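haha ok so turns out i had the wrong file open the whole time. this is the CORRECT one, sorry everyone. sequence first:
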Amino acid sequence: MKKIKITDKTLTGISGVLSFREKTEIAKQLDKLGADVIELPQIKSDKADIILVKNIAGVVEKAALSIPAGFTKETADLAFSAVKDAKIPVLNVVLPMSPAGMEYHCALKPDKMLLKINEMVAYCVSLCGNVEFTAADATRAEKEFLVKALTEAIGAGAKSITVCDDAGITDPAEFADFITYINENVQGIENVSISVDVCDAINMSTACIAAALRNKADGIKTTVGSRGYADIEKIAAFLSVKGEVLGVSSGIKTSTLKNVCDTINSIVESDRTKQSPYDGVIRNDDEIELHKNDDFATVAQAVRKIGYDLNAEDSAKVYEEFRKISEEKEYFGTKELEAIIASSALQVPSTYHLVSYVINSGNVITATANLCIEKDGKKLNGVYVGDGPIDAAFLAIEQVVGHHFELDDFQIQSVTEGREAMGQALVKLRSDSGKLYSGSGISTDVIGASIKAYLNALNKIAFEENR
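then structure:
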């Protein structure tokens, strides 16, 4: 019985924002399920994406990891540098085959596209032993050109070929004829494996895949859940009924299929807007709007507008940080400017240093905070009851300090996405002189971030008063 290759592309089709841990967990689950190949999205953010791919490569034990090589030698180098430590690395050269796709995505005519196929596949072969060529939008390509393109890719060293019905408008009979035509006309096709990737736009993907398997296709590309392409659960169900008749099988472990799919779907489809604990008080950004090209005077005026009275040195530090961030960000609102002020202006030695904190809170008990804060080498403890855990923590700090400061503003926001998001707290305290001081704190614990932000602002007041 012929074993067909299952390539899962769930990670390439996720629309929401997931953490590194969640993406890695999805890869681990697919490996556990028995997928032969796990397809990864193309690298966009060099540092972050490379770290993610390397992290996944370190935990996937059996499956091959496939990553798009991009359109140039430089992108291929980048992709291989990320995936090279996988147990079975694969570089995937993905290029459009339809006339519209070649013109729109690559600005290439058919003869130039053939040269690009040869160039990219040959270069990837020089980097990696396993190279796949994916003919995107193949069912809408001119047949004669598609044959030349696949022949070119095989001649350049591709070990596997994938043909795609990205439009999803082909019926099973048409797809069977399509695969037969490829098998009969592409030179060297008998020496490589051929996989199919079918969009489920008209609910025909499973039927088209069945037609392809009857006509010597070697592999299937799937996803977990309804993500527009062949659902792995439907494919597994089809193979369990018709696999013996077709003389094919897969390595998918049907005993764990439902559990793995449920786990992945729970990760991908969870509603983060309801689960995130960082929905706290956030100011409206409409008060100011700065552009990345604004000069020093404009930024300084915006700082004064939101209530800060900075000296020349701190104003210069704020503007310097503004210029650094503006290399990647075009517009700034009140929230972004206050974060810059909190992190760059009036950075002082710590008079008060957080040692530890214990917070008790719930819907049936009154919130209490027990904080240990160090000052001048002495550990001071504050215990207070408040209207919620953060209120209790702030009151405990005031108990240690022995002074009350007006809390002008308090903000909490998420600075990363996903259930492991980092929370940033911003605290603005007004001293007895009426001057405003801001402090920021970052932590995966929103209460810890809030305490750090309060102490950061408090240390600035203490430094100014002592000076």
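The mean pLDDT is 86.
again sry for the mixup
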